[in-house]
Amino acid sequence: MRPSGLIGILALIAAICSWETQAMATDGLITIKSSFGPADTMKRLETEVTARGLIVFAHVDHAAGATAVGLPLRPTDLIIFGNAKGGTPLMQQAQTIGIDLPLKALVWQDEQGVTWLSYNDPAYLAGRHGVGEPAKAAITAMTGAMHAIATKATAP
User: Of 33, 39, 101, 118, which has the fewest beta carbons less than 10 angstroms from its beta carbon?
Assistant: First the structure.
């Protein structure tokens, strides 16, 4: 193999490894590295959710709950949000998707102090529940919105 070919392969491997530290996807869970700390990431996330006309139904601070019972937990904060216009078409196709709706996003900090934002991929949820073709437009819109919201909350 020529040195230039080897360099190209090494560059590709480095790019792939770098991407994996920025974003991960496992079994429908999308995780994106944030450029901000946990509090700022959550604030940016909630601001973007409401700016898009979505309703924040609940906010669950898991770390505060752990502290209240004397247990340690790094920042772990959940926001539950959505709207009936987006979720109802999916539930009309498969009511069981209601267990996964409204949408949720988790802001958390790992052992190294890095902040992450995780959410369920709407397309994965649709597949999990067998949501059919009639809800494809709603799934596509929801997937795009989640990506845009997560990117806005985590990118400088």
Answer: 39
The residue whose two tokens read 């209601």 is 98
Question: What is the tens place of the pLDDT at every residue in 28-83?
Answer: 999 999 999 999 999 999 999 999 999 999 999 999 999 999 999 999 999 999 99
**Which tokens in the block code for residue 102?**
């409204």
Q: What's the CA gap between 152 and 44, in Å, rounded? A: 8
CA angle 52-56-62, nearest 5°? Answer: 130
Q: What is the predicted pLDDT for the residue at 10?
A: 40
Question: Between β-strands 115-120 and 55-61, what pairing exists: parallel, antiparallel or unpaired?
Answer: unpaired
Please, what is the average pLDDT of the chain?
Answer: 88
In eight-state DSSP terms, residue 114 is: -
Give the whole-angstrom CA distance, residue 118 versus residue 58.
Answer: 16
DSSP string computed for 66-101: HHHTT-----EEEEEEE-HHHHHHHHHH-GGGGGT-
